[in-house]
Design goal:
The structure is a single chain. This protein is an alpha+beta fold and 70 residues long. It has one domain: Hypothetical protein (Metal Transport, Frataxin, Chain A, 2-Layer Sandwich), CATH 3.30.920.30. It has helices at 9-18, 49-58, 63-69, and strands at 22-26, 29-33, 38-42. Strand 2 and strand 3 form a beta hairpin. The radius of gyration is 11 Å and the shape is globular.
């Protein structure tokens, strides 16, 4: 999977909110849900590229689709 380098946790949350995900809980990580899928976003800046790619995949996005939504 192509990497998504340099994505901050705020940018990741913003993109996922565009897709209908809402913040369910915040602590050391941000937990987001759309009612069916639950995603965990680490509070790292930037988020590891492999981790961000996996989160995008779990949300049903390809890396290119994720980049377009940034």
């Amino acid at each position: 999977m192509p990497k998504l380098p340099g994505v901050s946790q705020k940018d990741a949350v913003r993109v996922l909110q565009k897709l209908g995900f809402r913040i369910a809980r915040e602590s050391g990580h941000i937990v987001m849900s759309n009612g069916e899928i639950r995603l965990t976003i680490p509070r790292h800046n930037p988020i590891n590229a492999i981790t961000m790619g996996a989160i995008a995949k779990d949300a049903g996005l390809t890396p290119d689709e994720f980049r377009r939504l940034l």
